[in-house]
């Protein structure tokens, strides 16, 4: 049995129907530009999957693709322009500000290759969420 990646998890989910990713769960191809890091080879590897997972979590939390403030581009020209821009930003190591997002440190960690396994990402998400919930509880207890 092949190792499980986020694409297997999300490939059959409704996220595909909403245009978050155009990945075909039966395909062996890599993610689309908006979820891909152009500094590494265009092939399916854990590093590609983890980088893409950061973009997927970003999209879930914000409702927008990285570097996109509104809905998905509709025209081919808009999509091409968007993908060129995202590719340039990612290639330059520049990523959207996630400092105010719950899970933002984990998204940054995915984008900056701090994790080598999906288990590390899951552990980091759980840890960050627990820490943020604890901080919020402490703030409310002072009222």
Please mark out the parts with pLDDT under 50 across 5 or more consecutive residues, or reply none: 1-31
Rg, alpha carbons: 16 Å
Shape: globular
Number of domains: 1
Kindly state the percentage of residues in helix: 40-55%
Structural class: mainly alpha
Beta-strand segment tally: 0
What characterizes the major β-sheet?
A: none
Strand content: under 5%
Average predicted local confidence, pLDDT: 74
SSE order, one letter for each helix or strand: HHHHH
What is the terminal separation in angstroms?
A: 53 Å
List keywords for this structure.
143 residues; globular; disordered N terminus; 5 helices; single chain; mainly alpha
Written overview of the protein:
By secondary structure, this protein is an all-alpha fold. It has one domain (6-141). The chain is built from 5 helices and no strands. It has helices spanning 6-11, 46-62, 76-91, 104-111, 118-141. The longest helix is centred in the C-terminal third of the chain and has 24 residues, at 118-141. It is globular, with a radius of gyration of 16 Å. 24% of the residues are buried.
Concise synopsis of the structure shown:
The protein has helices spanning 6-11, 46-62, 76-91, 104-111, 118-141. By secondary structure, it is mainly α.
């Amino acid at each position: 049995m092949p190792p499980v990646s986020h694409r297997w998890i999300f490939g059959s989910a409704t996220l595909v129907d909403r245009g978050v990713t155009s990945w075909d769960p039966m395909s062996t191809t890599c993610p689309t530009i908006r979820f891909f890091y152009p500094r590494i080879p265009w092939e399916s590897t854990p590093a590609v999957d983890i980088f893409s997972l950061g973009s997927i979590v970003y999209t879930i939390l914000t409702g927008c693709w990285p570097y996109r403030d509104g809905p998905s581009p509709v025209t081919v020209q808009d999509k091409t322009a968007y993908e060129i821009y995202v590719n340039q930003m990612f290639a330059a190591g520049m990523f959207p500000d996630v400092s105010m997002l719950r899970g933002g440190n984990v998204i940054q960690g995915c984008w900056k290759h701090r994790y080598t396994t999906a288990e590390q990402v899951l552990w980091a998400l759980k840890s960050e969420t627990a820490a943020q919930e604890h901080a919020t509880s402490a703030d409310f207890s002072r009222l």
